[in-house]
Amino acid sequence: MLSTSLVTSSLREAACRNTIRSTAGLKKFIHSSPSKLNLLRTNAIISTSISNLSTSSGLRGNSGTMDVPPPPSLGTPIQNIVPWKQLMGPGPTNIHERVLLAGSLPLVGHLHKEFTQIMDEVKEGIQYAFQTDNPCSLAVSGTGHAAMETMMTNVLERGDVLLVAMQGIWGERASALAERQGAKVAQIVKKPGEVFSLAELDAALTEHKPAAFFVAHSESSSGFMQPLEGIGELCRKHNCLFLVDTVASLGSTPFYADRLGCDVVYTGSQKALGCPPGVCPITFNKRALSKVRSRATPPHSYYFDICELANYWAVPGYGEARKYHHTAPISTVYQLREALSMLAEEGLPASWERHTAASRQLQQGVEAMGLRMFVENPEHRLPGINAIRVPDGVDWKRVVDRCMSESRLEISGGLGPTAGKIWRVGVLGVNANPVRIQRTLDALADALKQENWKA
User: How does pLDDT run across 262-288, given as a tens digit for each residue?
Assistant: First the structure.
């Protein structure tokens, strides 16, 4: 038997479709202000109706007159292509329905008062997530790499020395971006999963006398987390900026930007924050902005110029607010605002504990199978991305493929120096819960069994 609500909904949808038989009917339907609960279905009805109106009105291009005909592949509804998967890799992660729904809200202009209100709320949410009072806390339009480049292009000038803590691929990437700014890169190197001591960093800072020091708090290529306590004081002692990557850690483990003395910090949206990729929170403190203002030349990138971005985001002290800089990804900013709202509702301490508990559950399950974690010291394991050693004789890729093909569940292999050596399992956002962790353990156990592996 069909439920009364389902029948009523179906009849309403049929009536809507019957209304939209002309352009006038479509306009009438659009202005009927559908409820947010039915927004996804409403948008689908409107899109289908526009397509039907275009066809009936002869608006579709005649492929015979085109140099390039309409691709037949685009005739397949996208809903028929995209399946649901449990994304337990290093990101992106599955996102909450509230965040999905936020992305379907109507577009407004990128300088409309409603959107600038949302931008202001996002700034406050970013300050909360980073635990900073920095007024210059905003979201860069782009993925985590955009934030890294924003950091490098603003604080580094040609000839500046950047000291990079090399523990994996993100140290490599930071070095490459800095060199493109004309900086001189010095490196202090450890094997993936090994900790830098304060004494080692102090010696390196003394030797290289850098303008800035970069470290990844969360090295997602190895599931490793570098302790940051005391590094801010060292950087002030050596008069250099403290630059931190928290892409894979923010929201999943305690982090206090101001307490740690961080000068510039950035993160990604698609991991523990539980938002689609496309916007990346970043914060600059007064020390970092003083370095930017004292530059002899403008930053190489206009798009990533923090002073221009600060004006667009109405950071005090950057001229008349809201001067046009670029068109922000409006729907993605909506989603970031909703993800930050959910983080504020849950509270950072609760989010940290949830991720830690889920990671502990995963690690205990992995070790019960006879597998080993890549990072030996539990205190240095990244809660959001867990690295598991691939046993001798096991094809890591076949296990990954089996998890996807048979359980529709994603885990990933290593990256950079850990490629082929580990599996990386994400415990991020809504996936940091016991049910999804157990499903992941079951899928991994089944895949290993089919590979005839025994501990």
Answer: 999 999 999 999 999 999 999 999 999
